[in-house]
Amino acid sequence: MGKFSYFIFILWISCLMVSALILFLNGFFLTRISQMERSNCTSSNNLEISDIKKLLQNPEIAGEICWESRKRVVLLVVDALKYEFLDWQNDITNSYYQNKIPIVHDMLNKFPNHSRLYKSIADPPTTTMQRIKAITTGTLPTFIDVSSNFASDKVDEDNLIDQVTQKGVILMGDDTWINLFPGKYLRQFPAHSFNTRDLDTVDREVRNRIFFELQKKDWSLLIAHNLGVDHCGHKHGPNHPEMTRKLNEINVLIKEIINALDDQTVLFVIGDHGMTNSGDHGGDSDDEIETAMFIYSKSPLQDANDEHEPRVLNQIDIVPTLASILGIPIPFSNIGSVILDALPSLSKTSDMWYCVHALWKNVYQTKKYIDTYSAGSYLFSDEKLQELEQMYRGLLQQVPKINDQKTLKNFVKHANEYLKILRASCTEIWVQFDSGLMFKGLFLMFCTLFFTYILINQLPEISMIKIFDLLFFRVIIFICIALSIVYIFYVMQIIVNFSNTFSFISGVILLFFLVILVIKNRYIIMTTWYNNFQSKKLNYIVQITLFLVIVGLFSNSYIIEENKILSFLLITQVWLLIYYNIKQYNTNNNHDKRNRKSFNNISRISNKHRTLLIVCGIIICVAVRLSSYYWRCREEQNRELCGSHILGKTGSITSDSLERILLTMSLVSLALYITTVRIWLRNCGNLSGFSLNITVARYCPVLTVVCIGSYWVLSRLSTSQQIKFTLEYQMNAIPGIAYFFIIISIFILFFRPLGIFFLKQNHQSFAVYEDENVVPKLFDIVKSLLNTNKNENSNNTPIIYGLGTVYSAAFISLSVFVTLLDALLLGCFQAPSIFLMCITCIALLIIISMERYHNANNLSHDVWFYHRGTSSNTKLSSFLLVFDC
Predict the structure, then answer these.
(1) If you write DSSP's letter for every residue of 708-727 in order, what string do you get?
(2) CA angle 660, 666, 670 (to 5 degrees)
(3) For the chain, which end, N or C, has fewer CB atoms within 10 Å of the first or last residue's CB respectively?
(4) Tens of pLDDT along 426-438?
């Protein structure tokens, strides 16, 4: 097969996969177009609150009015404050996180007109940056937000911070706010946010600053973002004494802030997201999206909420609420609903008109946004836009007729229905996946892989060469080139109306020609498949099992129990392979006994072979079973039935003795692993010589393990003990040194992987990398020596170290550093899980290699594209094994 023809074939298949990938991504990664418009309003400082009744006679003018500020706002963001942390339960005992913030329960009981508690539902993804964007812009996050500065962290949409900047904004705590809104603060006291091992520094910074700022009067919005609870969840999980300590600190902080508030300030305590039982977040489970929102004001709050209505709201509802309290425009992209009973109260008469104006301004702003967005994107259906337009017109006519509490409640009901439908429409477009596009992409990808597998696996080499030389294939080349040009034009934005339909059609065209190619060669394919099936039944059983596993991924119940199912299938396949090997050996040995005079050596080899296979199978079973102790229960699983596990979270263990045992296991695993690999490489001759890659393989694993072990031991010590041994920057530098050794080693081994050493009898070394094809030449040299007399040219006989494992040793050396990297990332308590995986892989490779060696008749067996046109007998295969080590 020519190299050019092979390249074109790869290009053909790549075009098919690209078409499938584009369709799937367009269905999965839905986009939202950022709107650059800014909301504006006319100040009402010269108007009395009673004048709003007259303004509401012309609702469109009233929607452009911003009423004067009612209060200043202290926004205390407690990272990962899930609703359970504030929800009081009378029958809870022995919990590390429930009922640990009693000040909220006390305020709700003592001052019900001054305090509110809500269950605030966050939209996924539940990550801090996405949540901050949501609670400042009032819009929904998506996986991809299309904007003018896509690569920037800066928020370019209209937001609360930009609107209130002129009135003064103070920030303290998480420095993520600085990256999102640079240069917007009157005073800022940021703290580094990504050191999850540090539970106290950010919280301490907030505590030291907030009370001085509360005494000043030059600000309207004070943002304090605590991270201790979130970092405790990441490090220890919620079920740990440290979580109790951090929640107690939050309780004290809230209590002291309440005591320090004046009558002109209202306190909002919110969580940006929740956390799972393991302390993580980012998904859409109930534990991750259910956050808490607590509001307290020394002056009363409005009682505009139906007492029977559950206090559950969307997190983005805080945006129009804060805008109404601060007297600023509601951000243009907001789709949240104002929380009426969270607004401050002055008098019953003015409160009614204040609520009407706040809610109408909310409706007016969302109508402007939806009209602007739908005009530029065409994503909303005409039916949905007509429904929203009719509801808006009804509200527009209803506003001037409000004159008492009855008409007010009727207006609030209809306005909330309008905002609910509008938000649901946006959610359908921005958050929900397009299953149709995803199915088309998966269909193209599956068909491409299936028919490509048939061509490569079932067609002999000679047939493949003939296919690539046909005129038919040249036509396919032109089609691939034409489609590639279309894709290039789309990327260069020369073609602007390139739709998903055209991607699907182009993919179907390419797939159609691939199917024709399979049909034209169906007789050869069926003949090859039948012959292979008679000799390789086990391979087809494994392939069918793999296919069923892939199909099972489309089942939710399968994914929930995926770890157990895959473990069971792995063990089943291993023992099936062992049984097949033993059966084949017995058959071949019986055949050899009938043709040989001596049977002792054959029986001895057969017994050793069976014993090794069984031992490897037992090792795999034990390793897989032990690995189950490191599994984590999914949120959908019943934790009492999903099985026991050693760790819920690194650092969540409260027993010192168990910590020491697990730490010792990890250190011993590291030491045994690199020692075993080093002994194997040395015995195989792959550590001979002094080249750079051999030096790296010899010494860098040891240095890396020393750094990792030192870091783990020091991390387990208390803060006071760590200070005795090392400073904080030195402590953080230790894993950095380990990363340096790992990255440098991988880089060197990638470019200089071969670990062989060539030495002539006169001890003159041979440069391995002078010729890229040095390994085949070395094999030719050694092979020629076998065909010559032992006494001839004895002085010129070379010594070659590591020739038998020239390729396998390169992968082993590289896998060492990848394993050490995984161990460092997993942590000291979960690191043994990666070594269990390595043991399983090694044992499985031994079983497979024994089966392949036994069934192979020549070097090119089962790999048609390695064949050079010359066959090699079993003697040459044995020759390779002689030089293995």
Answers:
(1) HHHHHHHHHS-HHHHHHH--
(2) 145
(3) C
(4) 887 777 677 788 8
